[in-house]
Amino acid sequence: MVKNIALIRGDCASPEFVAQAVRVLDKIAEKYGHTFNYTETYMGGSAIDKFGDPLPQSELDKCLASDAVLLGSVGGPKWEGLPGPQRAEKGLLRLREGMGLYANNRPAKIWPQLKAASPLKDEIVDKGIDFIIVRELIGGAYFGKHTTTVNEHGEKEALDLMPYSEHEIERIGRIGFETAMKRNKKLCCVDKANVLDTSRLWREVMHRLQKEYPEVEYREMFVDNASMQIVKDPSQFDVIVTENLFGDILSDEASQITGSVGMIPSSSLGDGTRGLYEPMGGSAPGHAGQDRVNPIAAILSGAMMLRYSFDMNEEADDIENAVGKALDKGYRTADIMSEGCTLTTCSGMGDAILAEI
Asked: Which residues are marked as active site?
């Protein structure tokens, strides 16, 4: 099978862990008789340096012409002082919008080998951490109107609108229910309906959808309580569905309780199979060029791409099993290092995982 992948290597240390993901994908292609063609694509800081724009139309067109996009992390101190529309992160928002990717799926799963790396108490971790956050991706405050004006008192006043329409809520809500149906049939909608009109509309739409999925155990939770419950008893969650801003915050929190953001992949999908796959954890500017960042999240993002965009479940399983075996043998990058294990580099972890495929 031939698949075309738009490859965005990212900024700072990101190209280092993306390189390991590509090595693993190439090994899978060789083993299973596939061909993966990569199109070098620029977004974020690298695109600003090359084009003066965080996402030129030419680079978006490359993504739209691909079967999937594998993305590193963008941004860093070099580009932080630029005006809002020119910031590296704006490229990511425009990419998601341009590809029509409204559903971001971020698993929060602790690998048993990394139990000691979790900041939570053993009695909490022992109950299990294995849930997924389904986050609406192209609506809400991040895509609403943003203005800064001077009020009648002569002081600056900023306004950020948080718009949501029924159809935007329904399509992400349905993905939440469908995801729950494929897992343990438990769905929690996280909102702030005691304050926000948008959250009250979310509940109205979710209640309509609930009637279509009587098998799913459905509940709702305010976002402040959800943030506490994720650290108090994460085992209670199976699927969380929420809006863009809340999902951004909660998914970062959820990744940290699993031991390291360097272990967490993510997928962003719309109505078709062409998705965007990226690791969490950022571009790690302080570690650039040192071959010490954790490549596992990028490698697992590649596995998610195989599974969700290419329907290659066996190949995805092979990668995930190889990661588990490398961890079983005690290989650790600095962020997940613990006593009795073997400290390795970014490329060294790539070597260890490749050896298990």
From this structure: 142, 192, 224, 248, 252
